């Protein structure tokens, strides 16, 4: 039991993602890992869930209180309206402190400020630069991120580079708390037989098929290479999309699109047995897919960005390619010609998961922030 100034139990409300237990993306995973650990430490945790995603709606799961709030079910409005309703509910609740995820929820900090509820926000990546948010969407996310720095008591970033960007763009200080990882030494190799794959017979991409993850760049570059291995693409988009359809229609027998892989043991086996893992994510901070690749012992080939340099410790745990097809083809050739170097990357990948990526350490840091905010009440 964690004690607070009045010796009562700390009550924390968490909102802004899909809910719990709903492990679909990075924020959902963070809420699961963080919420469960906070609950075990004696914190009373409430998680706000997107009602339409939950057919069954138990009031508690694993000791975590669940509140199911509605949303306007339209692509561009779902997340924001769900967060708006959740924030109002949380402000009327007995929560001591509110933790919000997603910079898109930046403007809603004015609600918690009016109600004098101490609130922190994890702002994630550079949403306004993502190709999917063109025009008005891009302007909104930039403005929302700026509002997050104005209205919330504490802004949290998950990388040193993102902290630097927020200071430079918005003149706003933030606290760095990285995303965590769960290292695993073993997996069930029979799981990859579902796709007629064998150990180290393929390269891997994991992520949504959206432009900012650069799957098109990697695939087109790979097609130009002479590798005999397959390129396995795990992920999709949950809607009809020309970009994703175009990728799936590229004619090359080496390409294997699995769609979503929802079984965590299957996903672990795909990571654990690949020859190399391609990481093309461009605008995030600490990326969950990259952390999984490190945790599962992958040789990593990453797009050369400041975020990826930070995570791979400037080349200690992987090689980088530039944002063009020629560079991708060249790094494939380099990987094919360097089996010993690739093995070394696989053998040492987990050592890159320093203390800052440990979920218990991450929880310690969040708990300290939440306790400090609760004192302001």
From TrEMBL:
E.C. code: 2.4.-.-
InterPro entries documented for this protein: Glyco_trans_1, Glyco_trans_4-like_N, Glycosyltransferase_grp1
Example GO molecular function: glycosyltransferase activity
Name of the molecule in the record: Glycosyltransferase
High-level lineage: Bacteria, Pseudomonadati, Bacteroidota, Cytophagia, Cytophagales
Glycosyltransferase subfamily 4-like N-terminal domain boundaries: 24-181
Keywords tagged on the record: Glycosyltransferase, Transferase
SUPFAM superfamilies xref list: UDP-Glycosyltransferase/glycogen phosphorylase
Domain Glycosyl transferase family: 193-350
Pfam families cross-referenced by the UniProt entry: Glyco_transf_4, Glycos_transf_1
